[in-house]
Amino acid sequence: MSKVFTYFISFVFLLFAALQYNDPDWYLWIPVYLIISVLVFLSIKQKLPKLLLNSILLLLIVWFLFLIPDLIHWLQGGMPNIAGTMKASNPEIELMREFLGILICIGALVWLV
User: Fold this and answer.
1) Is 53 helix (H, G, I), strand (E, B) or coil?
2) pTM of the predicted model as reported, rounded to 2 decimal places
3) By the 8 A CB rule, do 96 and 82 touch?
4) Other CB atoms closer than 10 Å to residue 46's CB: what's the count?
5) Is 49 helix (H, G, I), strand (E, B) or coil?
6) Helix axes 50-66 and 91-112, enclosed angle (nearest 10)
7) pLDDT band at 17, cuts 50/70/90?
8) Coil, strand or helix: which one is 89?
């Protein structure tokens, strides 16, 4: 991949982290997005240790698996709009946003691996 694209991806994850400042569980999401941003950025200059990437990927996959029951509940509930407002009106909306956030992080790490 081109360096410009990689810088862009790193910046996007940095932006994701910045947008979490008012989230109720910001203490989880800011570090996750920052870690992904830093790893993507560092991948431009050096080859990252596979053990590090795979360990973080494994943790995110475990977190992702714990959210699958919430995905099923959201699907059974008629798939309420998760982008209608920034404030989640029910827990399923927030959990689906988290599900998708983890999925995006997993995608970035798979791309790095």
Assistant:
1) helix
2) 0.87
3) yes
4) 7
5) coil
6) 160
7) very high
8) coil
Q: Which residue has the tokens 């998760």?
A: 82
Non-local (6+) Cβ contacts of 1 within 8 A are: 111
Q: What is the DSSP string of 7-41?
A: HHHHHHHHHHHHTTTTSTTHHHHHHHHHHHHHHHH
The one-letter amino acid code at 90 reads N
The residue among 37, 39, 35, 41 whose CA lies nearest residue 3 is: 41
CA–CA distance, 40 with 112 (Å, rounded to integer)? 7
Tell me: the pLDDT tens digits for 45-98? 888 888 999 999 999 999 999 999 988 988 888 887 777 665 656 677 788 888
- Cα 29 to Cα 2, 49, 76, 82: the distances in Å are 27, 23, 26, 18
